[in-house]
Amino acid sequence: MLLSRHQVLARRERDPERLDRSAYLLLSRIDAQGPMSIGELAEAFGLDTSTVNRQTAALLRCGLAERVADPDGGMARKLRITGEGGRRLTGDREVNRSCLARVVADWSPEEVRGLEEVLLRLNRSAEALEGRHWPRPEPDGTCGT
Length: 145
Description:
two-stranded antiparallel ribbon, 4 strands
């Protein structure tokens, strides 16, 4: 909770252009998985489609995402990150990384690696309980769950 609060405070202090939490999460998921429909996003986050529809409408209004035809030929239109959305997502990720780097600045490289391993395990355990896995690269470069 403290780490989350630290990042929220850093978000407000640094740049009013920073993404809000829902935009960051939606864009991160689309970035990891590729174009997604509102239904796919709702399922991925365990949210009602009306909630995701409101959140994605905000992304579209701000030019952070765009609707595209399903690359697999399906009927539903999908959301894809725009260049501006990608730029802002990358910027937010860099700020988040720098905030974390400040938190662990006096840790040894071994302690930082240990934290990374434990957090990965914690995330995967939470995902397994929910049945909602986040696509992420594996050490071998493939994308796993």
